[in-house]
């Protein structure tokens, strides 16, 4: 080696065969999962379901194999959408500007290469050196250049030799200046021949798939026979091994596996194949688990994710969802949970006398009832629970009360939010002064008083008519960090100085200026602006009240300005970070996160809220967000009814525009939903519409008769009896018809009618007069649920 030659980090050596003790590398746990998969697939009545699982993984492979090599970038939500709805929809993403045509062409090539893989798996083609060259040509069909470095160390785009072995060394220079040596061009054919000969012997010996896949991938990478695209070919060969063994397409995902993948290849360079074997086994096991779950419960229609999916809306209690998600997976949490105030804000509907009344969807969280008592007792009995001592103190101070119920309800959810936050993460809890002091004590107990950052006061204006105290016109944002390393982007949220007095201006911490500011530094400060203080005024710095922004206004009573969320998200997250809103309401936080290039998750216990976000937020933006927990067909509706009957009731009621779920789900008096007609019937003094939901498999006539008695008791004008399947009982239909019609305006409507979830999925709504929007009181927009 000459004195000027760079140091070598890894010297080339001939490839070696598997170690003699290769059986010790096998993963019996993977073999068990594979046996379960094979049995479930064999017993499946719908073989297309297994093919659908494999096709989605193939689409995912085609996307990810280019991302991990930095051939292109694809947003996670675009990647997931393409995998689920098919690569043939890429033109739509080109039109939206979310996927470049060049990237789309490379993805198409990579998916086509998997068809070549399947030719080997099926036995139509042999795995030969000429096949490998052809596979490379297919993978790189629309890649015309490769990165190269000239003798002066400058990068340039060189033409790519496709489908043929390299003719020059392709040894990469690492960041430290050392060289990683691959096989010299003159030895490539010999090494490939040896690789394929050993691989054929391994097949005869029955080497387990995870070991053979790791060995074949690494040894091929050691040879590095092509100018570029070696990683893609290596991963395609890995797919050959697993698919031949009856496994799934192995998808090495950039976001989940990149670091472990690189480390495992480096370990294999040093002679240790186990990390790469384990990585492939774990990827395969996780995908098999997901696939098994989907095969065994096909009625779910992919509406329930088996792992955390971002850029998605989740229906249900955030506690249930968060408990399924992994530790330290979220960068920022913003929550605006329901809190008790004198403003009745959530759901407007008519009572039997036609006078509007208010029902708060979360009213049970403020009630001391059996559930609250059980929640408190569970925490008191769990001596290692992070809220054990705090709950005992609150109980001593407050006694059995609505406030204690609320604090323990929030506490068990905040504990999960802390678990989900990364070390650099933060949380903002939005509340009103009614409970902010108690919630701060709760946050101190969960996050630690040391991690308290700010109590931000958000001030707003509006009409107020009080005589015994000052008008209450502010909310509180409790800002806590997960750890001392929490992110805070102060420069991202600077605002203009209102005025800057040279004689009296306050210097910023760390400015290094002692005394007065000079005219030059004043000019600099004016350009930079200042970091906002911990009091934020609606109407300033872009925080225009929602009521004055027609483009934002949804009529949602607790809606916050988009600028408020923009400031929070800019300050405590970076583009690409994951933002969680576990009480997402009308979706301001998730819309802000989406607009700012963050990934996001929104959860709400109200199916109506999910509908509002989809219809009035994302649809207007041209965004299609996946939803989980909401049935997508009749089979998944049956499963929701069986697994979570109260969630099913709430969802079913709100499929009819204008109906809102009942305040009480236990002891509901036979009422699952209510609505209010805008126009009073000609011969009745009531605008009330009632609904009852039955999620059972069969129709029970006595239950329907009980509902008719409820209509009489509540003096309701109309009733809707909601079932899973259409009611075909002649007796029931005769009894419903005997109640007659109700004249409302120019129309006549059945006093009581049947409507099924099957009708919903077939696009049929019950004939009803115009109802008031439960959120605004204005005429309901019938398209919301269509």
The appropriate CATH architecture of the largest domain is Orthogonal Bundle
Instruction: Assign the structural class, choosing from mainly alpha, mainly beta, alpha/beta, alpha+beta, or little secondary structure.
Output: alpha/beta
Distance N to C terminus:
74 Å
Number of DSSP helical runs? 25
Instruction: Tell me the fraction of residues in β-strands, as a range.
Output: 5-15%
Overall structural domain count: 3
User: CATH first level of the largest domain: which class?
Assistant: Mainly Alpha
Q: Which residues sit in consecutive blocks of at least 5 with pLDDT less than 50?
A: 298-303, 341-361, 505-514, 782-786
Please compute the radius of gyration using only Cα atoms: 31 Å
The CATH H-level homologous superfamily of the largest domain: Fido-like domain
**How many β strands by DSSP?**
22
Spatial strand sequence of the major β-sheet: 12-10-11-9-6-13-14-5-15
Mean pLDDT: 84
Helix content: 40-55%
CATH topology of the largest domain: Fic-like fold
Shape: globular
Report the sheet with the most strands, covering strand number, pairing sense and barrel closure: 9 strands, mixed
Characterize the structure shown.
By secondary structure, this protein is α/β, with parallel strands linked by helices. It has three domains: 8-296, Fido-like domain (Fic-like fold), CATH 1.10.3290; 312-495 and 531-628, Vaccinia Virus protein VP39 (Rossmann fold); 634-785. 41% of the residues lie in helices and 14% in strands. Strands 12-10-11-9-6-13-14-5-15 form a nine-stranded mixed β-sheet, sandwiched between helices. It has a five-stranded mixed β-sheet with strand order 16-17-18-19-22, with helices on both faces. Helix 8 packs across helix 11 (274-296) and helix 10 packs antiparallel against helix 11 (274-296). It is globular and about 95 Å long. The N and C termini lie far apart (74 Å).
């Amino acid at each position: 080696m000459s004195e000027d030659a760079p140091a070598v980090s890894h010297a080339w050596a001939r490839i070696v065969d598997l170690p003699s003790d290769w059986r010790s590398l096998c993963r019996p746990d993977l073999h068990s999962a594979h046996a379960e998969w094979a049995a479930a697939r064999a017993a499946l009545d719908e073989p297309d379901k297994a093919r659908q699982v494999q096709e989605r993984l193939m689409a995912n492979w085609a996307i990810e194999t280019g991302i991990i090599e930095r051939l292109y970038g694809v947003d996670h939500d675009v990647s997931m959408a393409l995998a689920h709805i098919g690569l043939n929809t890429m033109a739509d993403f080109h039109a939206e500007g979310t996927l470049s045509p060049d990237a789309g062409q490379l993805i198409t090539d990579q998916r086509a290469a998997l068809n070549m893989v399947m030719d080997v798996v099926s036995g139509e083609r042999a795995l030969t050196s000429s096949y490998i060259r052809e596979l490379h040509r297919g993978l790189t069909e629309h890649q015309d250049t490769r990165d190269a470095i000239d003798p002066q160390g400058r990068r340039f785009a060189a033409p790519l030799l496709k489908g043929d072995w390299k003719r020059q060394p392709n040894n990469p220079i690492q960041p430290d200046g050392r060289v990683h040596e691959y096989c010299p061009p003159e030895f490539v054919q010999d090494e490939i021949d040896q690789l394929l000969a050993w691989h054929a012997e391994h097949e005869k010996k029955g080497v387990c798939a995870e070991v053979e896949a790791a060995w074949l991938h690494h040894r091929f990478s050691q040879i590095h026979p092509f100018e570029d695209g070696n990683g893609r070919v290596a991963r395609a060969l890995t797919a050959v091994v697993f698919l031949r063994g009856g496994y799934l397409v192995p998808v090495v995902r950039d976001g989940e596996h990149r670091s472990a993948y690189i480390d495992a290849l480096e370990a294999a360079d040093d002679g240790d194949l186990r990390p790469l074997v384990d990585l492939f086994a774990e990827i395969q096991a996780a995908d098999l688990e997901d696939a098994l779950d989907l095969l065994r419960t096909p009625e779910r229609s992919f509406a329930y994710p088996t792992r955390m999916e971002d850029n998605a809306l989740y229906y249900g209690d955030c506690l249930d969802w968060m408990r399924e998600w992994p530790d330290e997976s979220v960068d920022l949490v913003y929550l605006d949970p329901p809190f008790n105030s004198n403003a009745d804000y959530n759901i407007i509907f008519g009572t039997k006398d036609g006078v509007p009344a208010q029902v708060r969807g979360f009213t049970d969280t403020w009630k001391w009832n059996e559930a609250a008592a059980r929640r408190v007792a569970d925490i008191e009995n769990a001596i290692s629970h992070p809220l054990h001592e705090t709950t005992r103190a609150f109980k001593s101070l407050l006694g059995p009360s609505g406030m204690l119920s609320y604090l323990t309800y929030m506490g068990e959810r905040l504990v999960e939010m802390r678990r989900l936050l990364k070390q650099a993460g933060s949380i903002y809890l939005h509340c009103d002064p009614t409970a902010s002091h108690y919630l701060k004590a709760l946050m101190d107990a969960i996050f630690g008083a040391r991690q308290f950052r700010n109590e931000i006061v958000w001030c707003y204006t509006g009409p107020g008519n009080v005589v015994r105290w000052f008008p209450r016109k502010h909310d509180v944002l409790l800002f806590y960090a997960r750890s001392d390393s929490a992110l805070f982007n102060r420069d991202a949220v600077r605002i203009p100085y209102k005025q800057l007095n040279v004689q009296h201006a306050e210097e910023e911490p760390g400015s290094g200026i002692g005394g007065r500011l000079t005219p030059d530094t004043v000019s600099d400060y004016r350009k930079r602006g200042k970091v906002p203080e911990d009091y934020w005024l609606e109407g300033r710095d872009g925080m225009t009240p929602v009521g004055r922004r027609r483009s934002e206004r949804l009529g949602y009573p607790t809606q916050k300005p988009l600028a408020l969320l923009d400031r929070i998200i800019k300050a405590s997250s970076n583009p690409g970070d994951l933002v969680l809103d576990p009480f997402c309401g009308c979706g301001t936080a998730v819309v802000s996160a989406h607009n700012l290039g963050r990934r996001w998750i929104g959860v709400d216990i109200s199916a109506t809220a999910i509908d509002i976000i989809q219809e009035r937020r994302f649809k207007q933006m041209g965004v299609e967000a996946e939803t989980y927990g909401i049935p997508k067909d009749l089979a998944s509706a049956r499963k929701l009814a069986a697994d979570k009957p109260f969630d099913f009731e709430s969802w079913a009621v709100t499929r009819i525009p204008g109906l809102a779920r009942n305040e009480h789900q236990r002891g509901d008096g036979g009422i699952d939903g209510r609505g209010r007609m805008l126009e009073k019937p000609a011969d009745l003094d009531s605008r009330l519409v009632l609904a009852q939901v039955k999620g059972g498999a069969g129709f029970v006539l006595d239950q329907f008769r009980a509902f008719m008695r409820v209509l009489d008791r509540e003096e309701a004008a109309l009733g809707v009896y909601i079932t899973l399947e259409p009611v075909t009982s002649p007796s029931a239909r005769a009894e419903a018809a005997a109640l007659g019609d109700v004249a409302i305006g120019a129309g006549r409507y059945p006093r009581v009618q049947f409507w099924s979830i099957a009708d919903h999925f077939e696009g049929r709504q019950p004939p009803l007069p115009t109802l008031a929007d439960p959120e605004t009181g204005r005429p309901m927009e019938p398209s919301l649920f269509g």
